[in-house]
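Ticket #4471: structure output looks truncated?

Reporter: J.K.
Steps to reproduce: submitted the chain below (241 residues) through the standard prediction queue, then opened the result file.
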Amino acid sequence: MKYYDLHVEPNFSQGENVLEEFLEIAQELGYAGIVFIFPWKKNTLDFLTAEIERLSSMFKTKPFLGFYVKSVREFKEAVKYRKFIDVLAVKGGDSRMNRLAVDKKEVDLLIHPERGRKDSGLNHIFARLAAKNNTFIELNFHELVASTERFKVLKKFFDNVKLAMKYKFNIVVTSGAYSKWELRDPISFVALLHELGFDLKTSKQMLSKNIEKMLKENRKRKKKEWIAPGVEVVKWPSRKE
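Returned output as attached by the reporter:
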């Protein structure tokens, strides 16, 4: 199967070749693609788009461009450039941002909805909205590993998995990697989803086919014929009289 890591956060302070280094490791681990997610800044869009295009032909593992927003103001600006972004994410934890992420069809991914909270960050209302708007909910492996209270993080993961099973929204394990050494084998993420309650087939699909479908649909936005999700201009061949 083709597996994807939907959230890695490289930092160019690690070196100008940081993206290449991430892709080299991801390729060794067997990923079909990884999504580089950066903080939203309008003035970085052109540079990062060019970098992703440059790297696309260099590796078997395909790079995708993502941005995250941390406020309503950033969301309103980023959404104007949505067609140029492969994955638009919202950094969660705050109830208002968690709600925005699942309520807006333009958002693909809600990052760590449980961060800084006593609960999992979701409820039945948010779960229904996530299913309706096809929002992916993240289980961030970095958050789990870095926590001094891993049992509590796992409990929150488990609560969100139960909601996903009931309301049928997409849930995904990501590395959340800040360093290339924090990338993990996709099979280990499949195993985590399986341990949290999904059957093996569904666990694999969550990290492969579901993500692949979303990325393909989002890439269609870049075509001139694209109007809205599911709506494109079709040119019929002219009929000869």
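Triage note (M.O.): checked the attachment and the full token line is present. Strands lie at 3-8, 31-39, 62-69, 87-91, 109-111, 136-140, 171-174, 226-228, 231-232.
Status: closed, working as intended.
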